[in-house]
Amino acid sequence: MNKRFYLLLLICLPMMLWAQNLKPVAQKIFSAKQQQAVFATENLFTVSPDNEQLKRQHAATATKATFVELNKSAIASLMSQQPDYLSLRIPINNNTIQVDLYKANIFTPDFSVTSAGSNGGAVNYTPGLHYQGIINGDNNSIAAISIFDNEVMALISTPSAGNFVIGRLENNRSNLHVIYNDADLTSRPAMECATLVDNGTYTPQELQLPANRGMMVNCIRLYWEVNYNIFQGKGSITDAANYVTGIFNQSAIIYTNDNIPVELSEVYVWDVVSPYTGTTSSNYLSQFQTYRTSFNGDLGHLLGYGGGGGIAAGFSGICASNINSSKCYSGINSSYSNFPTYSWSVMVVTHEQGHLMGSRHTHACVWNGNNTAIDGCGPAAGYGYEGSCSGAPIPSGGGTIMSYCHLNSVGINLSLGFGSQPQAVIINKYNSGACLTACIGMACMPPPGMNTTTVTNTSAVFNWTAAVSASSYVLRYRVVGTSTWTTATATASPYTATGLTAGSNYEWQVQTVCTGGSSIFTISTTFTTLPFTCSIPTGTSTTNINSTFATFSWTAVGGALSYNVRHRLVGNATWTTANTTSTSYTAYSLTASSNYEWQVETVCAGGTTSGFSASIPFSTTAQPCNTPQNNYTTSISSTSAVLNSSPGSGGGSYNLQYKKASNSTWTILTNVSTPYTLTGLQPNTNYQWQVQLVCGLTVSPWSSTVPFTTLCDTPTAVTTPTGTINVCAGPVVLSANSGTGLTYQWLNNGNVISGANNSTYNATVTGNYAVVVTNSNLCSSTSAIVSVSIGAMTGQIAPSGTVSFCAGSNATLNATSGPGFTYKWYRNNVLLSSTASSINIGSSGTYYCVITSGSCTVTTNTVVGNQINNPTPSISHTTPTSFCSPGSVVLTANTFTGVQYQWQKNSVDINGATSQNYTATSNGSYRVVETANGCSKSKTIAVNTASSVSASISTNDPTTLCNQGTVTMYVNNPIPGYNYQWKNNGNNISGATSTSFTANVSGNYSCNVSASCGNTNSNAIIVSIGSFNAQINPSGNQIICTGGSMLLSASSGIGFTHQWYKNGNIISGATSSTYSATSGGSYTVFINSPCGSGTSPAAVLTENSVSASVSPAGTSTVCSGTPMTFTANSGAGYTYRWFRNNVLRPGNSQIINVTSEGQYKVEVSINGSCAVTSNIAVLDVINNPAPVITPTSATICNGAAQVFTANNFTGVTYQWYRNSVLIPGATAQTYTATLAGQYKVTETAFGCDKTKSAQLTVTSCREQGEGAISEVLNNISISPNPFTDQLNIFVLSEKEGNAEIQVLDMLGKIVYRSVITLNQTSEINMDVPAGIYMLAIHTDGKYQVQKIVKSR
Length: 1352
Known about the structure:
Layout: H1 3-12, H2 24-34, E1 40-42, E2 45-47, H3 51-57, E3 66-70, H4 72-81, E4 85-92, E5 95-103, E6 107-115, E7 121-122, E8 129-135, E9 138-147, E10 152-158, E11 162-168, E12 176-181, E13 192-193, E14 218-226, H5 228-234, H6 237-257, E15 262-269, H7 281-291, E16 299-304, E17 309-312, E18 327-331, E19 335-336, E20 339-340, H8 342-356, H9 377-380, H10 420-431, E21 437-438, E22 451-453, E23 460-463, E24 470-479, E25 486-490, E26 495-497, E27 505-514, E28 517-521, E29 525-528, E30 541-543, E31 550-553, E32 562-569, E33 576-580, E34 584-587, E35 595-603, E36 616-619, E37 631-634, E38 641-645, E39 653-660, E40 667-672, E41 676-678, E42 686-695, E43 698-699, E44 706-709, E45 719-720, E46 724-727, E47 732-736, E48 743-748, E49 751-752, E50 760-763, E51 767-774, E52 780-782, E53 786-790, E54 797-798, E55 801-806, E56 811-815, E57 822-827, E58 830-831, E59 838-841, E60 845-853, E61 856-859, E62 863-868, E63 875-876, E64 882-884, E65 889-893, E66 900-905, E67 908-909, E68 917-920, E69 924-932, E70 935-946, ...
Parallel strand pairs: 1-4, 6-15, 13-17, 14-15, 14-16, 16-18, 46-53, 55-62, 64-70, 72-79, 81-88, 90-97, 99-105
Antiparallel strand pairs: 2-3, 3-12, 4-5, 5-8, 6-7, 8-9, 9-10, 10-11, 11-12, 14-21, 17-18, 19-20, 22-23, 23-26, 24-25, 24-27, 27-28, 27-29, 30-31, 31-34, 32-33, 32-35, 35-36, 37-38, 38-41, 39-40, 39-42, 42-43, 42-44, 45-47, 47-50, 48-49, 48-51, 51-52, 51-53, 54-56, 56-59, 57-58, 57-60, 60-61, ...
């Protein structure tokens, strides 16, 4: 049956549902329709007006497709209403199908989206709407649809027609979506599963579904982690989360339909670069197992682009003791040529999770109870059977989830699920999973047995049968036809709904709440409330009766909209009427001591009323005469005040009384009003007052006492003279203003002058004077200050305080200057010789100056001179300043508080050398400049370097003297800065540290030369003076390296003969003055000379063994720029010298990090002795050719295309990026770009990669008019241009052969492709719409592009 006929059949086929033998998804739809559930309908898709053109543009991607526009208003309506059931009509290939859906709960209660970035943690994410269901009329189909604000993701699969995908084009963020069957794609996925074959088998029981499975109440919780490249491709955390939750919904329906409960517990998004950078699925899984040590779920799943497929850790992931056994990786594909490839991704993720749940591949030899395969799809694709079996068939209707049928023409049909045997294996594994917890939706079902009883006009009782696993219930009810529900909760049936509207048609539903989740709501149960009768209110009462108000109350009447209330004085004809929706009303402004009556009636729907009730009488109380309470005083002056009082109830006027606080007699004022102004008061006096209310013939009690104090009548205070008065000698007469009853007190600098109480005062000392004037009311004021200066000259030194200066320099002090001033300067109270107004000081001390002008003399402030004398700089070093190159010496300056450093070499600052230490590595004069407290000092030291340490000595004198004499020896080619120590018989000669030495006694002489890089002993010169002395050099205890030798030298001279011994035994033939010892032992020599004969002291040689090796051995390979670590073996006292290609490298560490290829070895010795050379370790550095992109930049017309070509070499693979974002699927040597941006390619070969970028600019190109397109390609002829149907192309080339041509439309899509023959005219017939196209011709190793126009 072809797909077109199948779709037509779905349209015409009557709906037939069977309650028995339905799969779970179809069963849910069937049950909902049996319960008369309302299926909301929306038209989400409209076929695009450009559908036909778009199909032609994308013909290279899919042979059939339908392009639709998304209805945004329908999306918004669904997101708002979120219906429990939904029916959608979907256009597919000129037909329409209907899918019936229920809202699926695919998340755990604690589901969250988290991120890894700087703001890592839980993300504020609102999930989309996820629905599952079937095609109307096809119970064996499945449909999973996820709805988000701007896109829809859907997967629909049927046994007959295969897998349909609905989604947004990858490079199109508008409303445009595509609907297609994955069998119509021009390419099939080449994804492979790298899960290792474990040679396991199944028991017959594991291959059979349990006879009585019961209700599947537990769920397998899945944790999905999203790699960084998916985040990059989608552009945001929300878009990445939408994408993977949509994929999960499409995968979950497969599990649901096979009775395998799964839920998504967390989505973790890498919005920063992740630690997962493998090139294979095995790499990704290994890194996932290493990095993710815990997760929120039963199984952990890493998703990413790359790896070529997926891999699971094994077949025992459910409740595994080792968390790494519960992990898998899926390399999914977001798109193929911009088509969303949801079905491909669902195949991978469902397949790898199936492994963790226990299932092996269907081409594994473990099935059918006889260890044979279910299908042969894997072997047919070249992968072989997993085990020892053969002959399995290729399923004509498509493979199941655990098959490799996606690699064959039959494909995988997702509606077939896992198949019966893998399903049985997984369910048996599920049943043994003790760690699994309860699902939200699987065990929590809506309650049955709904009915309504005891219906009145305002209430009804809702009843239902208890549901399994229910902890409580949520109820909702509403008037049929309205949109708003009234919601309530209950722990058990029944529930009574009150406050209903009489005579109304209601519907109600109930939902079961379970631990960890809740069910869907039941279908509605309807009932109608009884009609309503408008009744007179009863239960009337009168409360809160006062002299001026009273409150009327009554019992509520069912169905009442409001109430009319009226009251009047008994005997009065006029009522006062009011309306209220409450069941009480308070009447105000009543008359005291009066008889009243009131009535109430009900106002019902339609304006009908019940009629008023009988009158209810009451009487108001009498008006009281209350004491005024809110009493206060304002506008207080020195002689008046305003008294205020709030009115009391029952009266009209007031009586006031007031008095001084110190008096006992009140002054009474009667029948006054407030506020009241008291006058004639005494200033600065405490008063009290009270008030009482006059109520006709009675009065209220007096109020509490209110105190207040009048203000002062402040006197004037003026001093003459005013301002500043300077005199050389006093007194200065100061006068205050006079007046009756005034008293005075003079102040100096704010302090009372004792006895200064007259109106005048004689000031004899400098100060700030003022006078306090007080009147008879004890009110005072203070005059302005008069500044008096007696001895009026002033003198100051600037700068003041403490003046600091560096040792060796000085500071200048300046005294106040003026005409005729003379100066005497003092330091530490000792008169100095300077008589000028300024002085230069160069030492610490306390300085001041005495300034004289006429008869006035002034002594200035004191200034402290502070000479800063920083510590003298010093430079220390723990290693010599003379050393071998390469080498260094750390120079350390002394330190003290606040010091800063600057190091110099040869008097030039060393950039950045500002710390206490500096490491010198070359010859030069080094100076440290120490600065503290603004002063600097310096210290210099010389550093000498040399290339190596060597030592040899010689003499021009005879070395054997039978009589007294001397022998002078010299160091050959001495180096300044090296250390020299002369030795005799191996012992240091005290004070012999120059480059020469004169010996006057016999002995074995040598010189030890040392520097920072080591030391060495020179050759020996044996000197014999005065008498014979047999010597060996070296002598005493010595170390000889195993396998090495040591040259022993004896005293020699004219007429000397020798015989060597080892351990007292003659060494045959050893008769020269030297002997090369090759093993340990005690060596002596017998010498016969003109001056005598004798045996030397022994040289005792001990053998010492050293080994040398490098790890890793053999050949190691790294990428260019990546360091390689080589490690030498360790041993007590070992020293090291490393060589590359037999050239000594600097440094002497046990471990080296290198980046240059070559042969590496190490020389190991003990303190420079017994050197042994290691094996050779070879380092190969992979230095792939630098990437080259042709062209490096380009500018094209808007809508045209540019082909970028990368260079090629052996083993290279490619990945293209645009604006640093990975382009999924762009892994060829060339990439056709249509959008402006920076394009780069990463070339990977032999595990190493390099990157190169190119820039593409898109501009708007001006047309020259039809028929006026200029030719720009000299070797290519195109005619006619514009063309109608046929185009003639001639390509001139020095070579013979073929050229590839491609025709691209203005969207960059290839609409025609062919091969033409070079140097011949080729006729091309293209059935394309009229318009502008780009003709790309690939010849001579490059693309050439020409614009062509089809006129009609």
